[in-house]
Specification:
alpha/beta; 2 domains; two-stranded antiparallel sheet; 29% helix
Length: 206
């Protein structure tokens, strides 16, 4: 009887000891799914960044290289000591123009989102943003290329109380963040017949 009782007690202790290990192992397996999803999101993010920079780059580089690293924390990291590093690299060929038959039936031109003009030259200076850093004291007296004053950006909600501001020569807004989407341009190639009410750029359309 005593031996039987000891054996049962031993089995109970072993089961109690193995249960936490089983739970940790299960959590580790479950952690793989969200970490794989995050890794896939990172891959797509790096790919899209490389594609956008390859399209917009005018620096004469042949290849665009983008690298990003993130740290993922598994569900079993109870004490903040475990992390899994994930790095994604993307090498893209810089955009060097469409083939002549890209729009075989018609001439194509370049536009940006919400633009009022179309461009014949991809390297037109109106398509290439020149960002200048300024201050709230200076921006009050500055004028853009059209002679207009700069106003607050309705995207980054910049204010004259901000210490550092960013402007462009052909824009009419000041920004408090260099990463504001108002300082970015995505260029599209469209058929000339699709320009709608857009007028021809006075700089590259001559």
């Amino acid at each position: 009887m005593i031996m039987r009782a000891c054996r049962r007690a031993s089995l109970t202790i072993e089961a109690a000891a193995s249960l936490p290990l089983f739970a940790i192992a299960l959590l580790a397996i479950v952690s793989i799914i969200p970490m794989q999803r995050q890794a896939m999101d990172l891959t797509q993010e790096v790919f899209l960044s490389a594609a956008e920079e390859a399209m917009l780059s005018t620096e004469g580089r042949e290849y665009i290289s983008i690298s990003e690293e993130r740290e993922f924390v598994p569900l079993t990291d109870f004490f903040g000591m475990i992390s899994v590093k994930c790095r994604r690299n993307c090498l893209a060929h810089a955009w060097c123009g469409y083939e002549n038959d890209y729009f075989a039936d018609e001439e194509f031109v370049y536009v940006t989102r919400q633009s009022e003009v179309y461009h014949k030259d991809r390297l037109c200076s109106h398509l290439k943003l020149t960002v200048t850093e300024t201050s709230s004291d200076e921006v009050r007296f500055l004028r853009n290329d059209s002679g207009s004053r700069y106003k607050s950006c309705n995207i980054c909600h910049s204010r004259l109380s901000d210490n550092i501001l960013y402007i462009t020569p052909d824009g009419d807004r000041y920004h408090n963040s260099i990463t504001c989407s108002g300082l970015k341009r995505t260029v599209f190639a469209i058929r000339k017949s699709e320009t709608g009410d857009r007028r021809q750029c006075s700089r590259c359309g001559r």
